Amino acid sequence: MADIRTYTLIYVALLALGTGKFVFFSFPEIFSYWMAFAGTIVLAIIKSLLIAAYFQHLIEEPRAITYMVSVAVFMVLLLTIAAGYSIQ
């Protein structure tokens, strides 16, 4: 199990990533809408990975469980894309 220092660093990283999402949309003269959108998606993926790894303790699990969860997340992504495509 991780110690308080690790959790604090992860918290600060999540706070910085959340601030980064705010910055993308606060400066339209620097970032276009699509750049801000893509940056927000990348930051959200990084935040999700940090939360899953440390706060849900997947980093301490055997690799087989991590791979199984990764495959499940990928399948949900495929289903979401398929559902979005069928709506159009």
Strand content is under 5%
Gyration radius over CA: 16 Å
Portion in helices: over 70%
Mean pLDDT: 89
Keywords: Cell membrane, Membrane, Transmembrane, Transmembrane helix
Protein name: Cytochrome C oxidase subunit IV
Transmembrane segments: 7-27, 33-55, 67-87
Subcellular location: Cell membrane
Provide the descriptors you would attach to this structure in a database record:
88 residues; mainly alpha; 3 helices; flat
3D structure, described in words:
With 88 residues, the protein is mainly α. The chain has two domains: 56 residues; 27 residues. The chain is 81% helix and 0% strand. Helix 1 packs antiparallel against helix 2. The protein is flat and about 45 Å long. The model has no long low-confidence stretch (mean pLDDT 89). Pfam families: COX4_pro.
Q: Summarize this, please?
A:
The chain is mainly alpha-helical and 88 residues long. It folds into 2 domains: 1-56; 62-88. Helix content is 81%, strand content 0%.
Tell me the layout of helices and strands:
Elements: H1 4-26, H2 33-55, H3 63-87
Helix pairs in contact: 1-2
